[in-house]
Amino acid sequence: MSLLQVNGLVRRFGGVVALRDVELTMEAGETLGMIGPNGSGKTTFVNIVSGHLASDAGTMLFDGESITGASPHQLAARGLTRTYQAVRVFSGLSVARNIETASLLRRDARAGAGAGAGRADGATVDELAEWLRLDRLMGKPAGSLTLFEQRRLELLMRLAQRPRLIMLDEPVGGLALTEVREMIELLAQLKARCSLFVIEHTMRVIRELADRVVVLMAGEKIADGAPDEVLRDKRVVEQYLGTVHA
Question: In a 10 Å sphere around its CB, with 0-12 CB exposed, 13-18 middle and 19+ buried, how is residue 146 labelled?
Answer without folding.
Answer: exposed
